[in-house]
Design brief:
Four copies of one chain form a homotetramer.
Chain A: E1 6-11, H1 15-30, E2 37-43, H2 47-57, E3 61-63, H3 66-71, E4 75-80, H4 87-96, E5 100-103, H5 111-124, E6 128-130, H6 138-148, E7 155-163, H7 178-181, H8 185-188, H9 190-199, E8 203-211, E9 216-218, E10 224-226, E11 232-239, E12 244-250, E13 259-266, E14 270-274, E15 280-284, E16 294-298, H10 321-334, H11 347-366, E17 370-371, H12 380-388
Parallel strand pairs in A: 1-2, 1-4, 2-3, 4-5, 5-6, 7-12
Antiparallel strand pairs in A: 7-13, 8-11, 8-17, 9-10, 11-12, 13-14, 14-15, 15-16
């Protein structure tokens, strides 16, 4: 008999750790899962900070050794929210220890890592989720439902951007170090690649340009450090269906704070979303009456995805509730109460996104159009040996 | 020595109860107060529903008699989130029992009720807060800071709207019954009156029109019931400073979900906010360089009010966090760690808003301009006797 | 037999004169009228400036005496675009001379003037048009067509604003002088009153507040002059149908350039327009499919009103083409080729708008709700005597 | 001594002919040129239609042989607004006949054609202009002025789109025939390439994908015809400065009517424009005060480019006035009264844009990154022989 609570071991307590912990608490109050959640153990690097965050976020225990969290017998789910260089090693260890795993994106630093993670997940038979959380924004969920229902016809165009401007003032950190992060803007903003796959399907090939506008940055200690990843990229491409792809991501677009947008043009309609207008969806549907035009849907009505849990119509939701909605399905799957929602990205989705990440990088380097299936990794062995000593 | 936790007794578990409980949990995880909060007891009318909500919202106990919650010795704060006809009786009882009180808006059903509440609050010496929560939306807080800093000069115009459309399909309920709710759209949307006072100052006089477009509604049992409050109103007026006032609220504006907006035009600039674009503030400031125009500020940066508690720039917040921000200041005041923030509305603000509510109603009835100070109540005795038997 | 050309005598060559002359030229190139137009004579006050403008605008002759233009036998239409204090005297003289008359708004300085203009027009049997040009903005025309077709149901709310900010920096001129202009913001922005009548019907009563924020201004010679009209007003009111009215106009709203907006909420839908987004119309219609929401119609498609004359879809039009569309119908009526379009405002519309203007002023002065039918003029005799000596 | 009028010979009376003729008339009324314009002769293919349009547009004569217009001694400027396959032959003939030439975009069907046009122009010493009219939209002119003044710092990103949806319902016509048009979406929307060059500088290299979603269309006679050009493309690229380029154009994006947009992100600010919001410019400038954010500038103030000719602030302009502004500078240059404005695109700009058009096409075909300087034409001889028989 399973215990009443699902114990969660969390690795990482930065931005993502806070967001996931917040979501797990909130879920209990808005849509209690079949088996309640217990935040069992938090693993971090720095003892003082980990202790403080464990207390604040409501964890029962904390540790500076993620292996303890993974080895803990009571823990059923490992939430792997650590920097990218710990994604593979922690997730694989957790799966091998029989845990269900939720891992932040990008799944691996390259498709070799993510493929090994996927293989471990499949072998384990456990629930595996890659936290492409935007699938669970109500407006995005509605978009996906409308596309799947054929309301815009067959997609012919997908364009997405993720533009920010923090790159102009950020000190050197792991996000600028290829060794630790894999890629820069390409993988960091893998959300747009996942959106493309989620809404339109598999990407067949890409061409691209990348740029590093600030080649050297001072770290916190004031030392000049070389930036080894791209600040920005632009890619064109084609889906297996023949639809065209346009992606652009940058950390260096002044005034753009979290300007993630996508637009899908179908044979009969169009759908557009912007993260900064989180609760709105712009739609033009096949069956619209005259005068036909975009509708500006405020996705806060009870019949919209996930909205019955929340407030009366018009009382807008924030970004962080994507995690609430995502965890709801994961927890029911872990509890055996329901299959993992089709909407949930798995390690397979993480791996496939990483293939596109790699293809974009290679296309830019090789100055040619690259098939996504050709983007299998070069650096697998190197990473593996590093991980064994992590 | 005060106990480590602040015990909270909550009356009401509808929309507002859920929102406040959610906020109190969240606050602990994002900005832990000096003394942690304990949700001690929840009072509701229906036993089954109260028990279920107490469990879901994380209360230790529940009761169907609000007097129990008020009488509970451990309870330090009573959160009065019940329907309007319980605002005065519960709040006054709680204050007389030595509790701090947070009461939802409108404070009373008429200025007589709210004045007695204010008198009880002042007599008690306890913290008293009227939950005009929008003061704690980051964009509104920034607006208020900019106005107070003189960045738009002396205000000459204030216009606000609160438009919704649920009135077209709602069954009869207490919101349509003058006996229980006091007024309809005027008091229900007292937020816009509070915004006017918060941003510009006291309102001197008003003229108005009201309308009840659907005079009869079926209740849940299918019986036709007379609607005894207004569905909508439009008011013009003048502030003590000479600035002009324009207010319009309606439950009957198709397509408007929670279209609360305000705009302040000053002698040197303008500020505008819309609830449905919760995280944005439109500003034109006195010191802007050419080309001068509205700026569209995404209020999600660390230097913006309350934002250092939350996510990286651009990751937008939802409506419900107004309550998190509001409770933070109330709890520090109750803990004696800081004075109640100047931003916080008190029972005095609730009473003054109710004076304007009453003046608008009287202006419409009497077909003349009415001074706000003339809006003292007629029905005080009647309400008092009803309350004693509630 | 009528001559091939319609000769036009124009009085006034300021902003309005330029706009009308431009429209008359343009009309010939985009939608040639049955009888071509000839700009016969331009009347202005200052000889040098009138001569220069006559040349630039393509007039055959010019004069500094408007009576010459009115007396000219070849002139068939007098376009009266002079300041308000010449509206009645010029229009009545022209009608008595058998001319068709197009007069700018507001028709008179008070309803007494406009009633006498209407009476002269009716007596003359000539075409009379009051230039409420926004009725001929394609988006407004579409709005009106949709309302008349019942696509939003019976209107219950009408709200409109006309906000500008030039008042903060304008020198004293005739717009600030009650003697010459009649009223300030109320009559100047009579467009919003006409929109209310055009889209919803007759206004029954109003209550209002007015303000003059800058009571004294320097004229061009640097002399301090008293401002004798209002800078701004706010009015509430009720239509004969029971619908509520909300109007606000101001010359003192920083950042607002020509912020004319209206919104009509009906029993089944909503329509909204903003002048600064001239080509867009926001609509929510009774027959919309889920997800229901506002549509943002770019009114540039061939099936939209007047658009078949212009450019391919999406190539947006400017404000000045309202006059092109308006003149098209007036010229066909003068040519006898078609009746005056129902869309065209006449002197009756001008008079009825002036009644509302007067009622708003009186409601503010008398601090009470005023019936529009009670707004008959006080100053008729005074004006009449002045005009006879003008 | 030059004659008082500048006689213009126009080839083509479709959409572009109407727009240019309208502009030439309007210019005379809003900002009379040093030497007035006379519409001397209109050349078209179909006699009945050419005669009708000549009359409507105010031409003195018409012809079905463009050579007549070119040979006419009085004609000083030839406005070449014919389909693309007449751009080179007509323009070169006109230049050789000593005429100044204004030619619509794209200049040639390939860079070979446009280079020969440029050579003829340089040899002739006449004024030559390529009608990239958007440079003369007031908001775009302001954008360009701000970029040149360094107000956003050195550009690092340029992204532009031109999306329309007429392709879903259009019959076969010359726009779908490579022989007549050169390219499809790439050249048709060469405006975005010109904007890139105008605002950021020369493009060094591109990678791209193209698609033809509807490979066969019925012509007006109902015959199925093969579409030999692309419906849409996506390109990434790099400027000589290192800035990144993102272009996407399509005739097949439902709901997009004339969705031309560009955004330039500089090292210190950002500028964005959208054609459908013709009069607005979004700017974030280096010297903005806190709270920093995009400003939404309504470009209708007298100090904005070209606005002193027009209406009071806020009275928005339409698309067609780009041509008025463009012609003003061309006419002064022809009159010898001023040099051709730096803002004006010449045949050199047309040729350089065509090089980018060709590079994008080749990159897509060859599936590799292509240097713009490698895009010299392959098909020059073929076109030349065809033209000699046109």
């Amino acid at each position: 008999m399973s215990p009443p609570h699902i114990d969660i071991g969390m690795v990482g307590h930065g931005f993502m750790g806070r967001a996931h912990a917040h979501a797990l608490h909130t879920l209990g109050h808005v849509a209690p899962p079949s088996r309640p959640v217990r935040l069992a153990v938090l693993a971090g690097r720095d003892p003082a900070r980990t202790e403080r965050m464990a207390r604040q976020l409501g964890f029962e225990r904390w540790t500076t050794d993620w292996r303890e969290a993974v080895a803990d017998e009571r823990v059923e789910i490992v939430a792997n929210l650590a920097p990218n260089d710990l994604h593979a090693v922690v997730s694989i260890a957790a799966l091998e220890a029989g845990k269900h795993v939720v891992c932040e994106k990008p799944l691996g630093r390259d498709p070799g890592e993510s493929r090994r993670m996927l293989e471990a997940a499949v072998t384990s038979g456990r629930v595996h989720a890659c936290s492409f959380n935007y699938r669970f924004a109500p407006a995005v969920a509605l978009a996906s439902d409308l596309v799947r229902a054929g309301r815009i016809g067959r997609p012919v165009h997908f364009r997405a951007q993720y533009l920010q401007d923090w790159g102009w003032r950020a000190p050197f950190g792991w996000h600028f170090d290829a060794e630790r992060t894999g890629t820069g803007a390409i993988g960091d903003y893998a959300h747009v690649i996942d959106m493309a796959r989620h809404l339109v399907g598999e990407i067949e090939e890409v061409a691209a340009h990348v740029a590093t506008f600030v080649p050297e940055r001072a770290d916190d200690a004031g030392r000049a450090r070389e930036v080894t990843v791209e600040d920005a990229y632009v890619a064109s491409g084609r889906f297996a269906t023949g639809a065209l792809l346009n992606l652009e991501c940058s950390r260096m677009a002044h005034g753009r704070k979290a300007h993630q947008t996508f637009e899908v043009n179908g044979e009969e309609g169009t759908i557009r979303w912007e993260l900064e207008d989180f609760n709105r969806l712009r739609v033009l549907l096949a069956d619209d009456a005259e005068p036909r035009s975009f509708r500006d849907v405020l996705v806060t009505e009870p019949q919209h995805p996930f909205l019955r849990w929340w407030w009366p119509t018009g009382h807008v939701l924030g970004w962080e509730h994507t995690f609430v909605h995502q965890w709801a399905g994961i927890l029911e799957a872990v509890a055996g109460a329901a299959p993992l929602p089709a909407r949930q990205a798995t390690f397979e989705d993480g791996w496939r996104a990483d293939l596109v990440v790699a293809a974009i990088g290679r296309a830019a380097r090789d100055r040619r159009t690259v098939a996504v299936t050709d983007a299998e990794p070069q650096r697998t062995h190197e990473h593996r040996s590093r991980e064994h000593h992590a």
